[in-house]
Design goal:
This protein folds into 3 domains: 185 residues, no CATH class; 89 residues, PH-domain like, CATH 2.30.29; 58 residues. The radius of gyration is 26 Å and the shape is elongated. Strands 5-6-7-8-15-14-13-12 form an 8-stranded antiparallel sheet, sandwiched between helices. It has a 3-stranded antiparallel sheet with strand order 9-10-11, with helices on one face. Helix 2 packs antiparallel against helix 3, helix 3 crosses helix 8 and helix 8 runs antiparallel to helix 9. With 415 residues, it is α+β, with helices and mostly antiparallel strands. Keywords: Membrane, Transmembrane, Transmembrane helix.
Length: 415
């Protein structure tokens, strides 16, 4: 999961850049976010105020506007080509080998009579062939896409944004997001489009198909990648970077309360998820082991060696999962910066940021003397006293967050 300033852990389909054709989320009369994808730029890239973008890079950009669909994700999901190779290996070599083994064993048994050993070999070969067929289908792009959307349905939907030398500015129809040049180094392009990882798992990414772009230009993309690779964030301190990231998300209202600093937190390790991974790897180790022995028994030496390599690789993953089961918590620490008004919240780190409505938090709680705002899709924002300039500001935020819902509290406190 990726963290955004104000210690928002967010993985939504959206982000932002050093100025672009994306208007930040605003409050309409109905209290909902209104997005005008055809609005004028909220902030033009300015070399004098932006430490990332130079004057010769300000006009270099790729814009996008449309809807992310399930088909886009299926075509862009990671390791698609690897799966094609796996499918060819399974259906072109391993599964036919075990099918042939079943036929040979059956023919011999019909000629010489069935015995318990022959029946066991036939059942094992059939089981392995069926198991590999099911496993190959399980990791197919279509299946992985459905599982990813089952966990994160918000990966679909509105996509309005702009890549530039400063990074990516993106609006998902509800909130505006910003990814800096340093973050965009992780973005990858192929013949189907662009993927921007959200650091919440291998399949939680922005899947931006070529059709979303206003004429995707591969040469411009290469130039942008070169700019991002040359970007050296160490030239500026964290406060300067975060202040710049805040500016990309729009101006701060005069009445807004500012915050900034470092948050450290001990996060419980999700042992149930780790246990599931460990059990799955254990089952794969067992299947690879049985298949390897059967392949060796039937004389398929090449197949047996390949299965041995798969078994050893999976054993390493199993061991890593087993080690995580012994770790109760994981310490996390990050820098954050932003502001809170009666209507909106802006929260950034040194590499990314988000502008969202105050009504998004669903409930609040206290963890390690930190105020936690819980948001949809298992996200959260963390605040501590030392992040605020005065006790008055801190008390106002605490009082406005005292109920089960955060939205609408700050107005009453201010009055």
């Amino acid at each position: 999961m990726w963290r955004i300033g104000g210690s928002l852990r967010l993985a939504s389909a959206g982000m932002t850049d050093d100025g672009g054709d994306v208007e930040h989320a605003s409050i309409s009369g109905s209290g909902r976010a209104s997005v005008n994808p055809y609005a004028t730029p909220t902030q033009a890239a300015n070399p004098e105020t932006d430490p990332v973008v130079g004057s010769e890079q300000a006009d270099l950009c790729l814009t996008l506007d449309g809807e992310i669909t399930e088909d886009d994700i299926r075509r862009l999901i990671p390791e698609r080509n690897l799966w094609i190779g796996l499918a060819v290996l399974m259906w072109g070599c391993i599964i036919p080998a075990f099918t042939i083994g079943v036929l040979i064993a059956t023919i011999n048994a019909v000629s010489n009579g069935f015995d318990s050993e022959t029946i066991f070999k036939i059942i094992c070969c059939m089981g392995v062939a069926i198991g590999f067929a099911v496993a190959t289908q399980y990791v197919s792009p279509a299946r992985r896409t459905r599982r990813a959307l089952g966990q994160r349905p918000d990966l679909l939907g509105r996509a309005v944004g702009r890549f530039s030398g400063g990074g990516l500015l993106f609006n998902d129809g509800q909130r505006t997001h910003y990814f800096s040049a340093e973050y965009c180094r992780l973005a990858q392009a192929n013949r189907h489009g662009v993927r921007v990882p959200l650091l919440e798992g291998p399949y939680v990414q922005l899947y931006l198909a070529n059709r979303l772009f206003d004429g995707f230009d591969a040469n411009v993309w290469k130039q942008l990648q070169a700019i991002w690779q040359q970007h050296d964030a160490s030239q500026w301190d964290a406060d300067t970077l975060m202040e710049n990231n805040c500016k990309q998300l729009g101006e701060r209202p005069e009445s807004a309360i500012r915050f900034g600093g470092q948050v450290s937190l001990h996060v419980p390790v999700d042992h149930s998820a780790v246990r599931g991974i460990m059990y799955r790897n254990g089952a794969m180790i067992f299947a690879y082991g049985v298949a390897m022995l059967l392949a060796w028994e039937f004389g398929f030496t090449f197949v047996a060696v390949g299965l041995l390599l798969l078994l050893l690789g999976t054993t390493r993953y199993f061991y890593n999962s087993w080690r995580w089961m012994a770790i109760p918590t994981q310490e996390m620490s990050w820098q954050q910066h932003g502001w809170i008004s009666s209507d909106e919240v802006v929260s950034v780190t040194t590499t990314n940021g988000v502008r969202m409505l105050r009504e998004e938090p669903l409930r609040t709680e206290w963890i390690e003397e930190k105020l936690v705002w819980h948001l949809p899709n298992n996200r959260a924002m963390y605040f501590a006293r030392e992040l605020f300039e005065s006790d008055e500001d801190w008390n106002q935020i605490v009082e406005s967050s005292s109920g089960t819902s955060v939205a609408g509290k700050l107005d009453s406190v201010a009055e």
